[in-house]
Amino acid sequence: MTGMNAWLFVHTEEIPNVLKPYRSFQKEKKLEDNDFSGGVFEGKFYGPDEFKQLETMPSRAEIYAKLLGSLQSPAIGLVTTLQAPARDVVMVLKAYVQKLEEEQGGAGQ
Fold first, then answer.
1. Any stretches that span the bilayer, and where are they (predicted)?
2. How confident is the model at residue 32 (pLDDT cuts 50, 70, 90)?
């Protein structure tokens, strides 16, 4: 630990959200050359290159949203497929009723 050092202790798994204010400070003060020399997350050391992975990993909410979207897609497709025949039957019946009404209207004249 030579030169300028900064320590950042994070008590959450949402690392990208925590680092945003630091990155803003770093840009504002023109300290881009002074970057993290590593980090420890869940007991594993991440070097400078690996640290970028921690910084860009999705948040827990983003992971849940992607998972939910993955689970919903097949269900929505199934519901749409099941609704299609019923919708087609309704359209045929509606056309048939309309045809009967037209025939009755024409026969009454």
1. none
2. confident
For helices 15-28 and 48-56, the axis angle rounded to 10 degrees is 110
Residue 56 to residue 52: CA distance in whole angstroms: 6
Q: What 3-state DSSP class applies to 41? A: strand
The pTM score is: 0.44
User: What sign does the dihedral 68-11-6-50 (CA atoms) show?
Assistant: negative
What is the C-alpha to C-alpha distance for residues 103 and 43, in angstroms, rounded to an integer? 81
Task: Please give the structure tokens belonging to residue 107.
Answer: 């026969």
CA 46 centroid distance within chain: 26
Mean pLDDT of 12-40: 81
Cα 57 to chain centroid distance, Å, stands at: 13
DSSP-H helix ranges across 1-109: 15-28, 48-56, 60-107
